[in-house]
Amino acid sequence: MDMQGSRTLAITQQQAWDALNDPEVLKACIPGCDKVEVSGDNQYAIAMALKIGPLAAKFSGKITLSDILPPSSYTLAFEGQGGPAGFGKGNSTVTLTPVNSGPCGNSGCELAYTVHAQVGGKIAQLGQRLIDGAAKSMADDFFKRFDEEMQRRHPQAAPDLIADSAHAARAGGKKASKVPAWSWVLALALLAAAVWLLS
Length: 199
Known about the structure:
The protein is an alpha+beta fold. The chain has five helices and eight strands; from the N terminus they run βααββββββαααβ. It has helices at residues 13-20, 23-29, 128-153, 159-171, 186-194, and strands at residues 2-9, 33-40, 43-52, 55-69, 73-81, 87-101, 106-120, 196-197. Helix 3 (128-153) packs across helix 5.
């Protein structure tokens, strides 16, 4: 399973970097996530509940970050186990690029990601269409929660970008989330590796 996408965020590159490396933010934004904890240098343990079609299971796994270039990019490797439901493993590259938008020149950033994942077990038997649909839904939910959390934490951050992003999402425009299937970044990575996970 290969996925890629991008999303314009109404926060600065540094704010996005800090949030994507904050276990509490990730736990709050990843659908079904029960735990995101630091388990070592650049390593996180994760646990989440996942439902794809008729299959529901709890997954646990780990994420390892590498090629870390703050606040621009990193690569994450993930693996997760869900008992009889299956397993997932793979890697994802996340890139944050500053952008200026709006009449006030407010700064935002674009989050771009690629995900390469393998799944096995009962999950792999569900069919690509069902998995892709669940991944897209999970990614959309992640970004909705992430946007809401960032607006709560940074209420003055690029309000014109928030409006532009919301309008583009409603209109299906260029700034809408291009989620072919998991599209976080972490959400898809989490699905894949939980499923993956997310990773």
